[in-house]
Write a structure and sequence with these properties.
652 residues; alpha/beta; Rossmann fold; 9-stranded mixed β-sheet; 25 strands; 20% strand; binds S-adenosylmethionine
Length: 652
Amino acid sequence: MTLPQLKMQTPDLIQKNIEQIAKLFPFVMTETKDEKGNLKKAIDFDLLKQSLSDVLTDDQNERYRLDWPGKKASLLKANTPIFKTLRPCRQESVNFDTTENVYIEGDNFEVLKILQESYLGKIKMIYIDPPYNTGKDFIYKDNFKVSKEAYEQEIGAVDEDGAKLFKNTDSNGRFHSDWLSMMYERVVITRDLLSDDGLIAISIDDTEIYQLGKLLDEVFGDNNRLACAPWLSEPSGGKEKTGLRTGHEYLLIYFKNTSINITQEERSTGELNLKDKLGRYRKERELMKWGGTSLREDRPNQFYQLKTPEGIEVLPYRNDGKEGHWRWGKSNDFIKEALEYPDFFHWELRPFDDGVRVNNKMERWVPYEKIRDKKKSVGWSTWLDKYGYNADGTRELKELFNMKPFDTPKPTQLIKWFLNLHTDDDFIVLDFFAGSSATAHALMQLNAEDNGNRKFIMVQLLEKTDEKSEAYKAGYKTIAEIGKERIRRAGKKIKEELEEKNRQLKIGEKPTDSSKLDIGFRVYKTASGNMKDVYYHPEKLDQKTLPGLESNIKEGRTPDDLLTQVILDLGLELNLPVEQKEICGNTVFIVQTNALVACFDDKINFEIVDHIADLKPFKVVFKDAGFADDKDRINVEERFKRLSPETVITVL
Ligand SMILES: C[S@@+](CC[C@H](N)C(=O)[O-])C[C@H]1O[C@@H](n2cnc3c(N)ncnc32)[C@H](O)[C@@H]1O
């Protein structure tokens, strides 16, 4: 009798693709033997071809597409499972138990694969700023055979899979191909992570924009290209490369599906930086009439009473204390609506001119129109000028560190422009070339400005800093250390500024809830899986190897590690709240009330099972070795059937 075992590996997308084809063309399904002689599902490709014969093109035919050596291998790689996981690191995290933000150290290809199930269709915005392939960039590449020359240019340590960080110079015969392969295998996975209303923006310059554009057209569909937006990065002109100075880069922006509206507010006269129950707005014109004919006697029927949301009755007094009038009469539809809905106007308390008082008061309430209507306003332009320049990115980082720890930070304003394209403000943003974490900084700033609830996932390779750099000398040995420290410092600064702003509120202005601002983050690091080989290949277990294998879990792996891998394996998100409880002497993890309950202790008995069943969890995970014997295991299953029949039990 065995309970179903968790697979503890990333999904096999080839298998998923086969299942999709089987749904559409069941008659092309067949069976074949794998290398061990076991039967497995396969596709009769000749039959599939025949059923599509009109539109098929084979390898000899010319066709319109972007190709490079290594493209097929990249796609295969993107679809093949890996046996890696994430290990949490509480010491380096901020507010681990309460934050919804995540920072992951590791190669982003592996991380994207690890996140594949948990974040499938759940990420609304992705911003990335990959190496531009300028001839000086370091590219992380798999252990496919490299030429001797390229080998000599390798830097950094070879990781446990033989993957390498190497300097891609244009003497590399595969200069574009290596870069394209690196981007392709990542972008292919990324598309699956985006929600249907998701958007991705990629920073790039003219070294690779043509190749990247074609690649993204292929992955997302050219009908889903929202913009190729030039961004003015160096207003006085950048470095001269061709005899002409190039002072701009690009944002290539794609939808997952074209069916979403992006924000269309005219931001040039101000952002929708205020919020009420109906959503975001900005204050526009005063309702008070000014200028030549602005006294009560000029429009007597435009002198009437309005009420603030707090019920204060307000008449249109001018700042000189004279009776004035509103810009609209009471019979106007706009005012009729305002009289019914107390939040219709934005109200501010303004002083009268020096020494002037009306009814013994020195101030008067002034209503402003609220602008939130998107249809009437003009859309944003794709010409991105004044959204921060490179120099602003550098200045922002310098202000936090009192030195220049990273060479190519993007300005937060540019990233804020992108994040603002979505009308919503409660979603997950992913940046898997995080660098100095400008995206996390921009996101926290935007949340502080509009009370939003955007959450970030940053991914950064453990790339070493140059020993001669200021960062290295200041103790930051990797770019990830700089990125994490920036979030800590920026978060603290943003929160302090928000609290200061709340203390300095003008009368009538509402405070922003600073306790809601999430400036924490959970740190995770990629690592080999927690399970020993025998977990995946029990057939290899024989009498000789048995004594060392009483546990199928690697030494040194903690319950926190196991929980993280189980969460990922079950497709749950990393930022769910986790409660840790001692029940009958065992440590029990309760993930999001009852989404998952896990206990990795060794003595699972009835008492604890009854307590767990009481929680009516959707899923329960134990260690297979946690049961004393088969009898116990069966009894546990029976007990759940009786006490909480919906619960799915699995084991490690
Ligand atoms: C151009 S920088 C990004 C800068 C960032 N936008 C900022 O404003 O600070 C690219 C970053 O991607 C990182 N990187 C390169 N290859 C990576 C990989 N395979 N996985 C994760 N990060 C990688 C590099 O270490 C570098 O920090």
